[in-house]
Amino acid sequence: MLENYLIVHKSVLPDYFDTVLAVRRRLESGQQRDVSQACREAGISRSTYYKYKDCIFEPSEMEGGRRAVMSMLLEHEPGVLSALLQRISAAGASVLTIDQSLPIHAKASLTVALDLGAMNISLQQLQAGIGAVAGVDNVRLIAIE
Q1: Which pLDDT score is estimated for 6?
Q2: Lower CB count within 10 Å: N or C terminus of the chain?
């Protein structure tokens, strides 16, 4: 999973990448509520913002460790969620939030936010371990900070 990411100095990237991050920070902090207005003020198009907003991340100096958001599909069978949570706990990660949809066609969508600060394996190993749990499919890393 992490092989899809690069660490690149921002001096070699187009200026609008930094601008996308600035717009996202303004929206997340509540300084700006309207995406169109925030993009207009920053000098980028809405399409540029939406194209890159979920693909550009910056390192964070968090005292509590790293956080990650993952999504996956769960089979609607007893014990699947419990086994998933046991796998997360065994890795030393802790669940911050969890959101599960109602099952449709015997599968439920699950989004989980994790605190990775005390994790004893790599994020890649955690993702592979979660995917190996019976009844868990399509494990994706949505965001990391």
Answers
A1: 72
A2: C
CA distances to 8, 16, 21, 22, 50 from 11, rounded to whole Å, are 8, 12, 14, 16, 22
C-alpha to C-alpha distance for 120 and 25, rounded to whole angstroms: 31
Q: At what angle do helices 15-29 and 35-42 cross, to 10 degrees?
A: 140
Other C-beta atoms lying within 10 Å of the C-beta of residue 110: 19
Residue of 2, 119, 135 lying closest to 64 (CA atoms)? 119
The predicted-structure confidence for 35-81, as pLDDT tens digits, reads as follows: 999 999 999 999 999 999 878 877 653 344 588 999 999 999 999 99
pLDDT tier, 3 (very low <50, low <70, confident <90, very high otherwise): low
Mean pLDDT for the chain overall: 88
Which architecture characterizes domain 67-144 according to CATH?
2-Layer Sandwich (3.30)
DSSP letter assigned to residue 104: B
Backbone angles phi, psi at 55, to 5 degrees: -115, -10
Q: List beta partners, residue 94.
A: 115
Domains in the chain: boundaries? 2-52, 67-144
- 120 token code pair: 């004893």
Token output for 104: 């449709």
